[in-house]
Give the backbone structure.
Amino acid sequence: MSQSGRPAVLGGQPVQPAGPPPWPAADPEVARVLQQMAADGSWGRYHGEFVPALTSQLQQFLDCEHLLLCSSGTAAVELALRGMGVGADDEVILADYDFRGNAGDILALGAVPVLVDVLPGTVAIDCALVELAISPATRAILVSHLHGSVADMPRLRELADRHSLPILEDACQMPGATVYGRQAGLWGDAGVWSFGGSKLLSAGRGGLVYSSDAAIIQRARLYNQRGNEASPLSELQAAVLLPQLARLAERNGLRSSRAGTLRGLLQEVDGLSLLPKADSGCEPGWYKTGIWYEPEAFGGLSRNQFAAAMRAEGFALDPGFTPLHRQISRRRCRLAGSLEQAERAGNQLLVLHHPVLLESADQLQLFVQAAERIRQWSAEILRNE
Ligand SMILES: Cc1ncc(COP(=O)(O)O)c(C=O)c1O
């Protein structure tokens, strides 16, 4: 093996010496509005033109009248659950493979997370298991679209309607995605977005709840309103989101095309594969692309060792979520059946951070090159651990 090919984790030159592209990316429109705000003092005001403008742009984008901007995706999930009337001792069903804060929100309400498994080979909630998990205490279903895949919303909607249960549809990872012909979030009784610092639309922090049911948003708003708004989105945040929202559809299109390229490239790479392609009528968002990892194909390197070696090569590849049942005390949640598939995802899933998907397709070739280099040197990487 030539020394020039030595992986970065063993002291070689990284395949991508510049490292992952920065996020948020430099944006002249954002720079312009920040300068304007610095000059006229609007950055420091409680109220101004930007939050109303963002509200109206979002109403148009989502074709949804009722919405509430707030301080984070985590706050949005809590507000939406409150808007649906979830309270102490109620049960909320969600997938065991989900964002930790979602279970945290349920617990913050004094309610009980009921954890169900995901479908084999995916991170999508298993609708059949959701139905089996329903009890007299069930008050809502929380479903997230994760890692470039979507949940089966028509099926979930049908069963939720049969049981008269509201759905909270978490689209924090995919603003602007299409799920079985609808905007992500609109199959649910409420949908949520995050404007966190790593997200596709970023204001450092921030969130959104939207619903076609005025009463849900009204209850969330009343809870948030204490004579002063408890979890507001600021003028400054709204101002930097406006130009990004204007370009969201175009950027989602590019990310989607690059994700397709990556899917094709990985078909030739032993031991790495994207989560299954979404059904027709779906155009998922690509915040963190989910990639299955097989340690045997990489000489027994663990998933975490492989991710660390890829990061050293200059790619933002990380382990996926830890299943919720491993993070929450058994006394505080209910495990509805085996969580084997979520456990597998917790052990074997990698996620690739999105900024590389806005770069040229060559970067994805380099990603594959880095993976092959690590495979070639896996024995030595293991010896050096
Ligand atoms: C699926 C999902 N829901 C909710 C959130 C919470 O968003 P925030 O970080 O804005 O609180 C995240 C954040 O990564 C997420 O991935």
Remarks:
- The first helix runs from residue 28 to 40.
- The chain has a mean pLDDT of 97.
